[in-house]
Amino acid sequence: MGFVKDPCGIVCVLVTYLAVIYADYVVTRWIILQTMQNSLWAPFHVVTFNTIVFLLAMAHLKAVLLDPGTVPLPQTRIDFSDLHSERNYNREHEEWTVCTRCETYRPPRAHHCRICKRCIRRMDHHCPWINNCVGERNQKYFLQFLMYVCALALYSIFLIIASWVYPCENCTTTVPETQSRMLHSVLLLLESALFGLFVIAIMVDQMHAILYDETAVEAVQQKGPYRSHRPKMALLAEVCGRGHPVMWMFPCASLNRKLHDVPLLSHDV
Fold this sequence. Notes:
two-stranded antiparallel sheet, two-stranded antiparallel ribbon, disordered C terminus, mainly alpha
Protein backbone atom coordinates (compact mmCIF):
# COMPACT_ATOMS: atom_id res chain seq x y z
CA MET A 1 0.00 0.00 0.00
CA GLY A 2 1.50 3.31 -1.08
CA PHE A 3 0.92 6.88 0.05
CA VAL A 4 -2.78 7.45 0.76
CA LYS A 5 -4.15 10.15 -1.54
CA ASP A 6 -6.67 11.58 0.90
CA PRO A 7 -7.07 15.40 0.66
CA CYS A 8 -7.92 15.77 4.35
CA GLY A 9 -4.93 13.68 5.38
CA ILE A 10 -2.53 15.54 3.09
CA VAL A 11 -3.72 18.90 4.48
CA CYS A 12 -3.33 17.65 8.07
CA VAL A 13 0.21 16.42 7.36
CA LEU A 14 1.15 19.80 5.89
CA VAL A 15 -0.40 21.61 8.87
CA THR A 16 1.60 19.38 11.22
CA TYR A 17 4.92 20.25 9.59
CA LEU A 18 4.07 23.94 9.31
CA ALA A 19 3.23 24.04 13.02
CA VAL A 20 6.51 22.31 13.93
CA ILE A 21 8.56 24.55 11.64
CA TYR A 22 6.89 27.66 13.08
CA ALA A 23 7.58 26.48 16.64
CA ASP A 24 11.23 25.88 15.77
CA TYR A 25 11.48 29.30 14.14
CA VAL A 26 9.93 31.17 17.07
CA VAL A 27 11.94 29.34 19.73
CA THR A 28 15.26 29.76 17.91
CA ARG A 29 14.83 33.23 16.40
CA TRP A 30 12.63 35.10 18.86
CA ILE A 31 13.21 33.41 22.21
CA ILE A 32 16.69 31.91 22.40
CA LEU A 33 18.53 34.43 20.21
CA GLN A 34 16.61 37.37 21.68
CA THR A 35 16.72 36.53 25.40
CA MET A 36 19.77 34.27 25.74
CA GLN A 37 22.37 36.04 23.62
CA ASN A 38 25.03 36.05 26.36
CA SER A 39 24.12 32.76 28.03
CA LEU A 40 25.58 29.29 27.69
CA TRP A 41 22.01 27.99 27.87
CA ALA A 42 21.40 29.22 24.30
CA PRO A 43 23.33 26.45 22.45
CA PHE A 44 22.00 23.87 24.90
CA HIS A 45 18.36 24.77 24.21
CA VAL A 46 18.95 25.03 20.46
CA VAL A 47 20.47 21.56 20.28
CA THR A 48 17.91 19.98 22.63
CA PHE A 49 14.89 21.57 20.96
CA ASN A 50 16.04 20.64 17.44
CA THR A 51 16.86 17.10 18.56
CA ILE A 52 13.24 16.67 19.65
CA VAL A 53 12.11 18.16 16.32
CA PHE A 54 14.31 15.65 14.45
CA LEU A 55 12.98 12.67 16.43
CA LEU A 56 9.42 13.93 15.93
CA ALA A 57 9.92 14.17 12.17
CA MET A 58 11.47 10.69 12.00
CA ALA A 59 8.63 9.11 13.98
CA HIS A 60 6.01 10.96 11.94
CA LEU A 61 7.54 9.98 8.59
CA LYS A 62 7.65 6.33 9.63
CA ALA A 63 4.05 6.46 10.82
CA VAL A 64 3.05 8.05 7.49
CA LEU A 65 5.08 5.91 5.07
CA LEU A 66 5.23 2.55 6.84
CA ASP A 67 2.71 -0.13 5.93
CA PRO A 68 0.37 -0.31 8.96
CA GLY A 69 -0.27 -4.01 8.37
CA THR A 70 -2.18 -4.32 5.10
CA VAL A 71 -3.76 -7.70 4.49
CA PRO A 72 -2.57 -8.90 1.05
CA LEU A 73 -5.14 -9.31 -1.69
CA PRO A 74 -5.52 -12.76 -3.30
CA GLN A 75 -4.19 -13.23 -6.80
CA THR A 76 -7.48 -14.73 -7.95
CA ARG A 77 -11.09 -14.08 -7.02
CA ILE A 78 -12.23 -16.15 -4.04
CA ASP A 79 -15.51 -18.05 -4.07
CA PHE A 80 -17.18 -17.49 -0.71
CA SER A 81 -20.16 -19.75 -1.44
CA ASP A 82 -18.55 -22.57 0.57
CA LEU A 83 -17.65 -20.33 3.50
CA HIS A 84 -19.21 -22.65 6.08
CA SER A 85 -18.01 -25.85 4.53
CA GLU A 86 -15.56 -28.24 6.13
CA ARG A 87 -12.75 -26.80 3.99
CA ASN A 88 -12.99 -23.48 5.85
CA TYR A 89 -13.36 -24.91 9.33
CA ASN A 90 -9.85 -23.93 10.40
CA ARG A 91 -10.35 -20.32 9.35
CA GLU A 92 -13.57 -20.07 11.33
CA HIS A 93 -11.96 -21.71 14.31
CA GLU A 94 -9.15 -19.16 14.28
CA GLU A 95 -11.65 -16.28 14.05
CA TRP A 96 -10.72 -15.38 10.51
CA THR A 97 -13.42 -13.31 8.85
CA VAL A 98 -14.32 -12.38 5.29
CA CYS A 99 -14.08 -8.89 3.83
CA THR A 100 -16.54 -8.60 0.96
CA ARG A 101 -14.94 -5.33 -0.20
CA CYS A 102 -11.41 -6.75 -0.50
CA GLU A 103 -12.84 -10.18 -1.37
CA THR A 104 -10.37 -11.97 0.85
CA TYR A 105 -10.04 -13.67 4.20
CA ARG A 106 -8.65 -11.49 6.95
CA PRO A 107 -7.00 -12.52 10.23
CA PRO A 108 -8.40 -11.77 13.70
CA ARG A 109 -8.60 -8.08 14.67
CA ALA A 110 -8.21 -6.93 11.05
CA HIS A 111 -10.72 -4.34 9.85
CA HIS A 112 -11.46 -2.63 6.57
CA CYS A 113 -10.56 1.05 6.28
CA ARG A 114 -12.86 2.96 3.93
CA ILE A 115 -10.18 5.62 3.32
CA CYS A 116 -7.23 3.29 2.65
CA LYS A 117 -9.67 0.88 0.96
CA ARG A 118 -7.84 -2.11 2.42
CA CYS A 119 -8.04 -4.34 5.46
CA ILE A 120 -5.50 -3.47 8.17
CA ARG A 121 -4.22 -5.84 10.83
CA ARG A 122 -5.05 -4.74 14.38
CA MET A 123 -6.44 -1.50 13.05
CA ASP A 124 -7.01 1.11 15.75
CA HIS A 125 -8.25 3.99 13.61
CA HIS A 126 -7.44 6.03 10.52
CA CYS A 127 -5.58 9.16 11.60
CA PRO A 128 -5.59 12.17 9.22
CA TRP A 129 -2.56 13.64 11.05
CA ILE A 130 -0.41 10.86 9.63
CA ASN A 131 -2.61 10.29 6.55
CA ASN A 132 -2.52 6.59 7.35
CA CYS A 133 -4.13 3.94 9.48
CA VAL A 134 -2.75 3.19 12.93
CA GLY A 135 -2.21 -0.54 12.82
CA GLU A 136 0.01 -3.40 13.85
CA ARG A 137 3.21 -2.19 12.19
CA ASN A 138 3.17 1.57 12.76
CA GLN A 139 1.42 2.06 16.09
CA LYS A 140 4.80 2.34 17.82
CA TYR A 141 5.84 5.27 15.63
CA PHE A 142 2.45 6.95 15.99
CA LEU A 143 2.81 6.74 19.77
CA GLN A 144 6.34 8.15 19.55
CA PHE A 145 5.07 10.99 17.37
CA LEU A 146 2.48 11.87 20.01
CA MET A 147 5.09 11.72 22.75
CA TYR A 148 7.50 14.04 20.91
CA VAL A 149 4.74 16.54 20.06
CA CYS A 150 3.78 16.62 23.75
CA ALA A 151 7.44 17.11 24.75
CA LEU A 152 7.89 19.86 22.17
CA ALA A 153 4.74 21.67 23.33
CA LEU A 154 5.79 21.54 27.00
CA TYR A 155 9.34 22.62 26.12
CA SER A 156 8.03 25.57 24.10
CA ILE A 157 5.74 26.69 26.94
CA PHE A 158 8.65 26.42 29.40
CA LEU A 159 10.94 28.55 27.21
CA ILE A 160 8.24 31.17 26.61
CA ILE A 161 7.45 31.55 30.30
CA ALA A 162 11.17 31.63 31.17
CA SER A 163 11.74 34.42 28.63
CA TRP A 164 8.96 36.43 30.29
CA VAL A 165 10.01 35.80 33.87
CA TYR A 166 13.75 36.18 33.29
CA PRO A 167 14.19 38.68 30.44
CA CYS A 168 17.68 39.45 29.21
CA GLU A 169 18.53 42.93 30.46
CA ASN A 170 21.85 43.09 28.59
CA CYS A 171 20.48 41.94 25.25
CA THR A 172 20.29 44.68 22.63
CA THR A 173 16.77 44.72 21.16
CA THR A 174 14.70 47.46 19.64
CA VAL A 175 11.06 48.17 20.42
CA PRO A 176 9.78 46.58 17.15
CA GLU A 177 11.82 43.46 17.88
CA THR A 178 10.44 43.28 21.42
CA GLN A 179 6.89 43.62 20.14
CA SER A 180 7.47 41.01 17.46
CA ARG A 181 8.92 38.62 20.02
CA MET A 182 5.90 39.10 22.28
CA LEU A 183 3.48 38.51 19.39
CA HIS A 184 5.24 35.35 18.24
CA SER A 185 5.52 34.12 21.83
CA VAL A 186 1.77 34.50 22.41
CA LEU A 187 0.94 32.74 19.14
CA LEU A 188 3.33 29.88 19.95
CA LEU A 189 1.93 29.64 23.48
CA LEU A 190 -1.59 29.23 22.09
CA GLU A 191 -0.40 26.71 19.51
CA SER A 192 1.52 24.69 22.10
CA ALA A 193 -1.37 24.65 24.56
CA LEU A 194 -3.89 23.64 21.89
CA PHE A 195 -1.80 20.90 20.28
CA GLY A 196 -0.43 19.78 23.64
CA LEU A 197 -3.85 19.14 25.18
CA PHE A 198 -5.09 17.50 21.98
CA VAL A 199 -2.09 15.19 21.74
CA ILE A 200 -2.17 14.25 25.43
CA ALA A 201 -5.78 13.12 25.04
CA ILE A 202 -4.89 10.96 22.03
CA MET A 203 -1.79 9.57 23.76
CA VAL A 204 -3.80 8.54 26.83
CA ASP A 205 -6.32 6.84 24.53
CA GLN A 206 -3.54 4.99 22.70
CA MET A 207 -1.91 3.82 25.93
CA HIS A 208 -5.29 2.59 27.17
CA ALA A 209 -5.81 0.71 23.91
CA ILE A 210 -2.39 -0.95 24.18
CA LEU A 211 -2.43 -1.79 27.90
CA TYR A 212 -5.99 -3.14 27.80
CA ASP A 213 -5.52 -4.80 24.40
CA GLU A 214 -8.59 -3.21 22.86
CA THR A 215 -8.37 -1.10 19.72
CA ALA A 216 -10.67 1.84 19.07
CA VAL A 217 -12.62 -0.21 16.51
CA GLU A 218 -13.10 -3.02 19.04
CA ALA A 219 -14.17 -0.50 21.69
CA VAL A 220 -16.86 0.86 19.37
CA GLN A 221 -18.00 -2.69 18.64
CA GLN A 222 -17.97 -3.37 22.41
CA LYS A 223 -15.99 -6.58 22.03
CA GLY A 224 -13.98 -6.05 25.20
CA PRO A 225 -10.26 -6.77 25.71
CA TYR A 226 -8.84 -9.27 23.24
CA ARG A 227 -6.52 -10.89 25.84
CA SER A 228 -7.60 -9.62 29.23
CA HIS A 229 -5.02 -11.62 31.21
CA ARG A 230 -1.95 -10.69 29.16
CA PRO A 231 0.75 -8.82 31.20
CA LYS A 232 0.94 -5.08 30.49
CA MET A 233 4.67 -5.14 29.71
CA ALA A 234 4.13 -7.95 27.23
CA LEU A 235 1.44 -5.91 25.47
CA LEU A 236 3.74 -2.89 25.35
CA ALA A 237 6.59 -5.03 24.00
CA GLU A 238 4.27 -6.33 21.28
CA VAL A 239 3.87 -2.79 19.99
CA CYS A 240 7.25 -1.24 20.80
CA GLY A 241 9.56 -4.21 20.21
CA ARG A 242 11.44 -6.77 22.26
CA GLY A 243 14.45 -4.58 22.97
CA HIS A 244 15.24 -2.63 26.13
CA PRO A 245 12.40 -0.25 27.16
CA VAL A 246 14.77 2.71 26.75
CA MET A 247 14.95 1.93 23.02
CA TRP A 248 11.17 2.20 22.76
CA MET A 249 11.56 5.98 22.72
CA PHE A 250 13.66 6.10 19.55
CA PRO A 251 12.11 5.83 16.07
CA CYS A 252 15.32 4.31 14.70
CA ALA A 253 14.84 1.15 16.79
CA SER A 254 13.23 -1.58 14.68
CA LEU A 255 10.32 -3.70 15.77
CA ASN A 256 10.71 -7.35 16.62
CA ARG A 257 11.53 -8.84 13.23
CA LYS A 258 10.61 -12.37 14.24
CA LEU A 259 7.09 -11.27 15.13
CA HIS A 260 6.42 -8.92 12.22
CA ASP A 261 8.06 -10.89 9.43
CA VAL A 262 5.38 -13.55 9.71
CA PRO A 263 3.31 -13.48 6.47
CA LEU A 264 0.06 -11.63 6.95
CA LEU A 265 -1.85 -14.25 4.99
CA SER A 266 -0.72 -17.69 6.09
CA HIS A 267 -3.62 -19.65 4.60
CA ASP A 268 -3.90 -20.87 1.05
CA VAL A 269 -6.74 -19.16 -0.72
